[in-house]
Amino acid sequence: MTAPTKQRVVVGLSGGVDSAVTAHLLKKQGHEVVGIFMKNWEDDDDSEYCSSNIDFVDAAAVADVIGIEIEHVNFAADYKDRVFAEFLREYQAGRTPNPDVLCNAEIKFKAFLDHAMRLGAEKIATGHYARVRHNPATGLHELLKGLDPSKDQSYFLHRLNQAQLAKTLFPVGELHKTEVRRIAEEIGLPNAKKKDSTGICFIGERPFREFLNRYISHAPGPILDDRGRKLGQHVGLSFYTLGQRQGLGIGGVKEKGAQRGGGAHEPWFVARKDLEKNTLRVVQGHDHPWLLSHRLVAQDVSWCAGQAPAPGAYAAKTRYRQQDAACRLEAVPEGFALAFPEAQWAVTPGQSAVLYDGDVCLGGGVIQSAVAD
Predict the structure, then answer these.
(1) Given 201, 304, 327, 361, the catalytic residue
(2) In 53, 173, 238, 304, which residue has its Cα 20 to 30 A from 213's Cα atom?
């Protein structure tokens, strides 16, 4: 939400269009705006996949057009300790973590926030598509979905707490992406047409298997179907995620009368990972029962309000870009459980289950297990 009085706001400038328009909007509102460019990855940073130098040049050009100062800050050690080490631990344990969730909680809204406060900031701002609202009835700061449903990033921000939300502004969360692009072109931003970044938070786009291969140990093992037949060999369980259908190396394996959810030409999907036996289990057909779950258990919980919501009916996402799914929240030791009336597809340990009450993001936790049908 727009701050009512002029404040010193430190904006995380990434070199992308969303953070650039964020800085412009805040300056236009009369705030004293300072840009910070965060360098959080140094390994092979001169490679074709991850050159923060290019992004910094873009961010500096933006700062010049808007007329604000920009500072280059290196958080690479924090990122490696707090985010990347955990990311590798999760992959080694056979889970599929979401680095953006951890990155937001540990770097953008912890290390960056702390640095901004040392610079005398009253607020920080980023180019996320989300909103913050103060609820006078409860005295709480609420995290809301961004107004553009196709760009909403509240899922990645669900670990933010009251202290962080109270200090944060998300100006583009009030806009649609098309409007953000229009503003960027209108004011002559050099990155107005720059494509949105994807890939691992701060590490960038790169061949993922080749990248992960450098950091974690792996051992090949059998690929079995739901009837125990060997279909091939996997290259290491860490390199696969539930629901994956590309890169399995078994595309040519067909059999008539494939059972439980697929005909002879149905695609294969990763359905289970057995770490003890180093075995990858695959099934044929998108709607195979092994891929469907009515219940999950999550731990490592974080609630925006500082305490768990009451058990009852809510909506949840078990992965980004998923439609909200109706569910019932249940309390369990060290976490929570979600029961879904409609089965959810490829619920993946390591990913986040994020709870919503309408547009309000309540928080969530890391999926530990899911019960297949």
Answers:
(1) 201
(2) 53
